[in-house]
Protein backbone atom coordinates (compact mmCIF):
# COMPACT_ATOMS: atom_id res chain seq x y z
CA UNK A 1 0.00 0.00 0.00
CA UNK A 2 1.31 3.47 -0.88
CA UNK A 3 2.30 5.54 2.11
CA UNK A 4 0.32 8.57 0.80
CA UNK A 5 -2.92 6.57 0.52
CA UNK A 6 -2.41 4.65 3.79
CA UNK A 7 -4.49 5.69 6.80
CA UNK A 8 -2.63 7.88 9.31
CA UNK A 9 -2.40 5.03 11.87
CA UNK A 10 -0.70 2.67 9.42
CA UNK A 11 1.73 5.39 8.33
CA UNK A 12 2.61 6.11 11.95
CA UNK A 13 2.98 2.38 12.68
CA UNK A 14 5.18 1.80 9.67
CA UNK A 15 7.31 4.76 10.71
CA UNK A 16 7.67 3.33 14.19
CA UNK A 17 8.77 -0.01 12.71
CA UNK A 18 11.20 1.79 10.49
CA UNK A 19 12.44 3.82 13.43
CA UNK A 20 13.38 0.56 15.11
CA UNK A 21 15.54 -0.22 12.11
CA UNK A 22 16.66 3.39 11.99
CA UNK A 23 17.78 3.38 15.60
CA UNK A 24 20.46 0.88 14.64
CA UNK A 25 21.44 3.11 11.77
CA UNK A 26 21.28 6.14 14.05
CA UNK A 27 23.74 4.46 16.42
CA UNK A 28 26.44 4.49 13.77
CA UNK A 29 25.58 8.17 13.11
CA UNK A 30 26.00 9.00 16.81
CA UNK A 31 29.30 7.14 16.90
CA UNK A 32 30.34 9.05 13.83
CA UNK A 33 29.53 12.44 15.31
CA UNK A 34 30.54 11.77 18.95
CA UNK A 35 34.07 10.69 18.31
CA UNK A 36 35.26 13.67 16.29
CA UNK A 37 38.74 13.59 17.90
CA UNK A 38 39.57 10.27 16.25
CA UNK A 39 39.16 11.84 12.88
CA UNK A 40 37.36 11.02 9.74
CA UNK A 41 39.58 8.05 8.73
CA UNK A 42 38.74 6.04 11.82
CA UNK A 43 35.01 6.64 11.27
CA UNK A 44 35.27 5.45 7.70
CA UNK A 45 36.79 2.24 8.93
CA UNK A 46 33.88 1.66 11.28
CA UNK A 47 31.11 2.36 8.73
CA UNK A 48 31.36 1.04 5.26
CA UNK A 49 29.56 2.55 2.34
CA UNK A 50 26.94 -0.23 2.15
CA UNK A 51 25.78 0.35 5.72
CA UNK A 52 25.58 4.08 5.10
CA UNK A 53 23.50 3.60 1.95
CA UNK A 54 21.25 1.12 3.77
CA UNK A 55 20.77 3.56 6.66
CA UNK A 56 19.94 6.40 4.30
CA UNK A 57 17.43 4.19 2.47
CA UNK A 58 15.77 3.13 5.72
CA UNK A 59 15.58 6.75 6.89
CA UNK A 60 14.25 7.89 3.53
CA UNK A 61 11.50 5.23 3.73
CA UNK A 62 10.58 6.60 7.15
CA UNK A 63 10.52 10.11 5.74
CA UNK A 64 13.60 11.19 7.68
CA UNK A 65 16.76 12.75 6.28
CA UNK A 66 20.09 14.11 7.46
CA UNK A 67 21.05 17.62 6.45
CA UNK A 68 24.56 18.92 5.72
CA UNK A 69 25.12 19.47 9.46
CA UNK A 70 24.14 15.81 10.16
CA UNK A 71 20.95 16.85 11.91
CA UNK A 72 17.93 14.59 11.52
CA UNK A 73 15.20 16.28 9.47
CA UNK A 74 11.68 15.29 8.49
CA UNK A 75 11.97 17.04 5.13
CA UNK A 76 14.42 16.23 2.40
CA UNK A 77 17.20 18.86 2.33
CA UNK A 78 16.35 19.68 -1.29
CA UNK A 79 12.70 20.23 -0.36
CA UNK A 80 13.81 22.35 2.58
CA UNK A 81 16.02 24.44 0.31
CA UNK A 82 13.20 24.82 -2.22
CA UNK A 83 10.87 25.83 0.61
CA UNK A 84 13.32 28.49 1.79
CA UNK A 85 13.74 29.78 -1.76
CA UNK A 86 9.96 29.83 -2.22
CA UNK A 87 9.58 31.70 1.06
CA UNK A 88 12.10 34.33 -0.09
CA UNK A 89 10.39 34.62 -3.47
CA UNK A 90 7.03 35.02 -1.73
CA UNK A 91 8.49 37.75 0.51
CA UNK A 92 9.87 39.55 -2.56
CA UNK A 93 6.50 39.16 -4.28
CA UNK A 94 4.64 40.55 -1.26
CA UNK A 95 7.09 43.49 -1.12
CA UNK A 96 6.56 44.17 -4.82
CA UNK A 97 2.78 43.93 -4.39
CA UNK A 98 3.05 46.44 -1.52
CA UNK A 99 5.03 48.82 -3.72
CA UNK A 100 2.54 48.30 -6.53
CA UNK A 101 -0.34 49.09 -4.18
CA UNK A 102 1.40 52.30 -3.08
CA UNK A 103 1.92 53.33 -6.70
CA UNK A 104 -1.67 52.47 -7.60
CA UNK A 105 -2.92 54.32 -4.51
CA UNK A 106 -0.97 57.41 -5.57
CA UNK A 107 -2.29 57.08 -9.10
CA UNK A 108 -5.86 56.75 -7.86
CA UNK A 109 -5.40 59.85 -5.69
CA UNK A 110 -4.04 61.76 -8.67
CA UNK A 111 -6.90 60.61 -10.90
CA UNK A 112 -9.45 61.57 -8.22
CA UNK A 113 -7.86 65.01 -7.90
CA UNK A 114 -7.89 65.47 -11.67
CA UNK A 115 -11.52 64.31 -11.78
CA UNK A 116 -12.45 66.93 -9.15
CA UNK A 117 -10.61 69.63 -11.09
CA UNK A 118 -12.30 68.53 -14.31
CA UNK A 119 -15.69 68.59 -12.56
CA UNK A 120 -14.99 72.12 -11.27
CA UNK A 121 -13.98 73.28 -14.75
CA UNK A 122 -17.07 71.61 -16.18
CA UNK A 123 -19.28 73.45 -13.69
CA UNK A 124 -17.55 76.75 -14.55
CA UNK A 125 -18.09 76.08 -18.26
CA UNK A 126 -21.77 75.26 -17.67
CA UNK A 127 -22.13 78.45 -15.62
CA UNK A 128 -20.43 80.52 -18.33
CA UNK A 129 -22.63 78.94 -21.02
CA UNK A 130 -25.77 79.64 -18.99
CA UNK A 131 -24.62 83.23 -18.41
CA UNK A 132 -23.99 83.64 -22.13
CA UNK A 133 -27.44 82.25 -22.90
CA UNK A 134 -29.05 84.61 -20.40
CA UNK A 135 -27.09 87.57 -21.83
CA UNK A 136 -28.22 86.56 -25.32
CA UNK A 137 -31.83 86.35 -24.13
CA UNK A 138 -31.50 89.74 -22.41
CA UNK A 139 -30.13 91.27 -25.61
CA UNK A 140 -32.93 89.71 -27.64
CA UNK A 141 -35.53 91.07 -25.19
CA UNK A 142 -33.82 94.47 -25.21
CA UNK A 143 -33.74 94.42 -29.02
CA UNK A 144 -37.46 93.62 -29.11
CA UNK A 145 -38.14 96.47 -26.66
CA UNK A 146 -36.10 98.87 -28.79
CA UNK A 147 -37.88 97.73 -31.96
CA UNK A 148 -41.23 98.26 -30.23
CA UNK A 149 -40.06 101.72 -29.12
CA UNK A 150 -38.90 102.49 -32.67
CA UNK A 151 -42.28 101.38 -34.04
CA UNK A 152 -44.06 103.54 -31.43
CA UNK A 153 -41.86 106.54 -32.26
CA UNK A 154 -42.50 106.01 -35.99
CA UNK A 155 -46.23 106.00 -35.33
CA UNK A 156 -45.84 109.12 -33.18
CA UNK A 157 -43.77 110.70 -35.95
CA UNK A 158 -46.46 109.82 -38.47
CA UNK A 159 -49.12 111.38 -36.22
CA UNK A 160 -46.96 114.49 -35.76
CA UNK A 161 -46.41 114.67 -39.51
CA UNK A 162 -50.13 114.36 -40.19
CA UNK A 163 -50.83 116.93 -37.47
CA UNK A 164 -48.14 119.19 -38.91
CA UNK A 165 -49.61 118.89 -42.36
CA UNK A 166 -53.05 119.60 -40.91
CA UNK A 167 -51.70 122.61 -39.02
CA UNK A 168 -49.88 123.80 -42.14
CA UNK A 169 -53.16 123.51 -44.04
CA UNK A 170 -55.00 125.39 -41.28
CA UNK A 171 -52.27 128.05 -41.30
CA UNK A 172 -52.47 128.35 -45.02
CA UNK A 173 -56.25 128.70 -44.82
CA UNK A 174 -55.98 131.26 -42.06
CA UNK A 175 -53.32 133.19 -43.99
CA UNK A 176 -55.57 133.11 -47.02
CA UNK A 177 -58.50 134.24 -44.92
CA UNK A 178 -56.41 137.06 -43.46
CA UNK A 179 -55.25 138.03 -46.94
CA UNK A 180 -58.81 138.09 -48.20
CA UNK A 181 -59.96 140.02 -45.20
CA UNK A 182 -57.21 142.61 -45.70
CA UNK A 183 -57.98 142.91 -49.43
CA UNK A 184 -61.62 143.37 -48.78
CA UNK A 185 -61.20 146.22 -46.55
TrEMBL record:
Kindly list the residue ranges recorded as spanning the membrane: none
Question: Which InterPro entries does this entry report, sorted A to Z?
Answer: FT20
Residues folding into a coiled coil are: 132-163
Q: Where is the signal peptide?
A: none
Enumerate the UniProt keywords alphabetically: Cell projection, Coiled coil
Question: Where in the cell?
Answer: Cell projection, Cilium
Q: Does the keyword Coiled coil apply?
A: yes
PANTHER family named among the record's database cross-references: INTRAFLAGELLAR TRANSPORT PROTEIN 20 HOMOLOG (PTHR31978:SF1)
Kindly provide the name given to this protein in its UniProt entry: Intraflagellar transport 20
Organism of origin = Ovis ammon polii
Amino acid sequence: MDEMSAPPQQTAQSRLRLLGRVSAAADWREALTSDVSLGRQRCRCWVNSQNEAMAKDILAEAGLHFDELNKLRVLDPEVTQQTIELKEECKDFVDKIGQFQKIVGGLIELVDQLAKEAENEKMKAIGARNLLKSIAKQREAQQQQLQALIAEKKMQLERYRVEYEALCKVEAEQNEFIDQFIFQK
